[in-house]
Specification:
By secondary structure, the protein is α+β, with helices and mostly antiparallel strands. Helices cover 30% and strands 23% of the residues. The longest helix is centred in the N-terminal third of the chain and has 64 residues.
Length: 393
């Protein structure tokens, strides 16, 4: 084997230098990775510390939020009930316009229809379909019908008041009068059609009698009607069944009119009165001082009337020429309750002392002669069609 040449030596030195450079590069890379790992470890430890601190601070906040988001059971029930109430209120508010649009004041309409002069008008029938009422009757003259129609229009309870027909008949007009007769009274059922009326009074048409019974025991009947200012009214019982003894009282504001027997020899009752300066609701109470039972029947009637005016005084000349004529003034009657003192000592009311005996009441029909167009041949049959006003009153 020959000795190494200079070229071989140079190759060996170049290989050794290449190995040293690679080794140095590897050490530098390892040192850099070590520094990176140390730095990463330090950063990781710092982050874990901050995370632990944030977790500790977050726990109270989470507990507070849990309390706020989960209310107590009673509060939950209250909130549910409130939500249901709000939903129901919304439904009622939505229905309110519909309910108000269909509301009809039937009691007031009935009172207005029954507000007429029985000496001029008699109602034969009153029929109703939906909001339309048909009134048929007889009157003493055409103006009496017109006055009645104007009163209905003035009540503001009807959208339309139309006189559908007027027909003159040969039979003269006769006001409705109810007189006791000896005919048998029809026997009603166990209770009359107006019960219960012991506590709540039922409406009664003027001039239209109602059949009542005193059943069951201690039964008391009550009716009511609107009495107009300055007008005269009469309330009475009639057609008493054997065993019935009525005791009648009428309350008008602070006044009470009462009557047991209208006259000796009869058991029926009657009260007459004049209303003061304002309209008022007359409350009528009928008690029984006799027997009770389904056959113990009677009729109750309320009507308006015009008292007969007193005759005008006339001067009577004296036979002596020098004497002045003299006259005797007639006493002016005053409206009082036609009542006899009851055994229980009830107070009998009287009307206002200053009331005139025969007032000119606005809207009240005049007599056939004073109306100016009296139907001499007979009565007038009429038909009036009313449309009751609906909506808020």
């Amino acid at each position: 084997m020959g000795a190494p040449t200079s070229a071989d030596w140079q190759d060996s030195m170049g290989q050794a230098e290449g190995v040293s450079l690679r080794t140095a590069a590897l050490w530098l890379l390892a040192a850099g990775l070590g520094v990176f790992l140390v730095t990463l470890s330090l950063v990781s430890g710092h982050l874990r510390g901050q995370a632990a601190t944030l977790q500790a601070e977050l726990k109270p906040v989470q507990a507070t939020l849990a309390k706020l988001n989960t209310p107590e059971p009673r509060l939950v029930q209250t909130m549910d009930a409130l939500a249901q109430l709000e939903a129901s209120t919304a439904k009622l508010n939505a229905l309110k316009p519909t309910l108000l649009a269909g509301r009809v004041d039937w009691p007031a309409a009935i009172v207005a229809i029954g507000n007429y002069d029985p000496t001029q008008i008699t109602l034969l029938s009153v029929t109703q379909k939906d909001r339309e009422i048909t009134v048929k009757g007889r009157a003493a003259s055409d103006p009496a019908v017109a006055t009645y129609a104007r009163a209905l229009e003035g009540s503001a309870l009807f959208e339309r008041v139309a006189i559908q027909s007027l027909k003159t008949v040969a039979t003269p007009f006769a006001p409705l009068t109810v007189t006791p007769t000896a005919t048998a009274t029809p026997t009603p059922g166990p209770q009359d059609a107006y019960e219960p009326d012991d506590a709540q009074a039922k409406d009664i048409f003027l001039g239209q009698p109602q059949l009542h019974t005193f059943f069951p025991a201690d039964d008391v009947d009550r009716v009511r009607f609107l009495a107009k200012a300055g007008r005269f009214y009469r309330v009475y019982t009639s057609d008493l069944a054997p065993g019935v003894d009525t005791l009648l009282s009428v309350k008008l504001g602070d006044l009470t009119y009462s009557n047991d027997d209208v006259k000796p020899g009869t058991l029926r009752s009657e009260v007459s009165f004049q209303v003061g300066g304002a309209d008022a609701v007359a409350l009528v109470e009928v008690q029984n001082r006799g027997s009770y039972g389904p056959e113990m029947s009677y009729r109750i009637t309320a009507e308006e009337y015009i008292p007969t005016p007193p005759p005008q005084p006339t001067a009577t000349p004296s036979p002596q020429p020098s004497a002045t004529p003299t006259h005797t003034p007639q006493a002016t009657p005053t409206a009082t309750a036609s009542a006899t003192p009851s055994p229980t000592g009830s107070v009998t009311g009287t009307s206002d002392a200053g009331a005139a005996p025969w007032p000119r009441v606005p809207g009240l029909a005049l007599s056939a002669r004073a109306a100016g167009r009296a139907t001499e041949a007979g009565a007038v049959e009429f038909v009036i069609v009313l449309t009751v006003r609906a909506g808020p009153q």
